[in-house]
Amino acid sequence: TMAGRRLREAVKETLISNSNGEFDDETHIVIAGLTNTYSQYIATFEEYTQQRYEAASTLYGPHTLSAYIQEFEKLAKAMAKGEKITKGPSPPDLSSVQLINLREPTGDLPPPHTNFGDMKQDIILPKSGSFKKGDRPIATFWSANPRYDLLTEGTFAVVELLQGKHWVPVYDDDDFCLFFKWKVDNSTLYGTATIEWEIPRDADSGVYRLRHFGSSKKTKDSPNIYFTGASSGFAVS
Prior knowledge:
Elements: H1 2-18, H2 45-50, H3 53-56, H4 64-81, E1 119-121, E2 138-142, E3 157-163, E4 166-172, E5 178-184, E6 191-197, E7 206-216, E8 225-230, E9 234-236
Antiparallel strand pairs: 1-2, 2-6, 3-4, 3-7, 5-6, 7-8, 7-9
């Protein structure tokens, strides 16, 4: 927390001193702690000398915070002055050396005479024939274990809106209103993916469908086979 305070103060002072009045003492600095890499703790110099838990996990030495502040001040100055800066080094991609103790899934199969992505249970329309805002249409697909490919930068589930003759994605599994649930029947070993959409109050009226994306493997060493499936269209009024 003290490291965060010092970083915020340094950025604030840099913005104020290098701007034309856009920033002042009322400027509120926020640290967004989630990033695309992880560098363990960032202790202050004083805390580092004590070598308690967080300090002992500050991996880059006693001046780690000073290095962070130095680079953030460069960024803040460039932002305040509207200057371009050169791109620094990217963090290493360590995904290939991560330790995974969970066994890989192998050999998923759909039920006879079906394919992955086929519907197990299509949308059940309400008696009125259309859904209203706040309703929850649900569709279930025959599907393989999602761990074959986590679809990083992709999605397992999409809500698509019909615009003219084309289906346009409007919500995916990044959105809190869309739920993706995979499970396997232990008696048959067949997997299903259920997509539930809690229709937002600000959703446009129109015709929608739910779409599922997934992948499977025939054997452990075979390449991924990608599939998709879509529900029937349904109206939202």
